[in-house]
Amino acid sequence: MSIRFSERKYGVPRNTIYRHMKGNLSNKSGIQTILSSEVEGKLAKWLIDCAKKGDPRTKEDLKIAATDYDKYENDPPKFGPKGPSIKCLNGFLKRHPSVSVRTPENLGKASATVTQDDINRFFSKFYSYMVENGFEDVLSRPDALFNLDETSFDLNQVPRKVLAKKGRRRKFNYGVVNSREILTKLKEDEEAKQKIQQEKDERKALREEKKLLKNISLKIKKKKKILMVWFLTNQYQKRAVVVQRKTFYTNNNHIHS
Q1: Please, where are the H alpha helices in 80-115?
Q2: Does residue 105 contact residue 170 with C-beta atoms inside 8 Å?
């Protein structure tokens, strides 16, 4: 198939076909990136490796690393004093779709290092404790088990979004804080509970009062309607009597005449 025939059949410019046939595609069109493709590949691999190790990196970390590479590769550096812009970071993520912005799950050091032997050891100690203190029968009685819940203040900070491998289901941030550390104020919770209950009672009383006033208003409207019907009926009857009397007098006068 000739180049001219391909141009007519597929609508592709002749120069484009010729350039692809010759393989002259080394220079890409558009604005050139500040960092080379090799360096960007290293940064993408570094982000994925850090996420796998449980120490994911944020966008700020990526900006710092890119700034350091820029200082090492370019003289003078091409990035400004604030480092890469948001547009540069978004372009990096588009060129490397394997890296995406994710929200990690904080995991305490104890939870991160637990093993199957640790779990088996815990249940063995728990069973021994129940037997020694005479609570062995509780383990076979479902009615003796209770599920308790509490309202508390979580001291574990909300994790920031990190850069990790795209498609990875769970991202952990190991050993940052104690993920089970909380703050509970029973007295304050009880006071808050009483206050909430008091507000609920006040709202309920207000609803009942509005409902009562509405019923009274409906009854008043109903009575007004009944009185109006009675009044109209009474007026109609009076008019009927007057008409009847007029008719009677008219007939009598006609007879006498």
Answers
A1: 86-95, 109-113
A2: yes
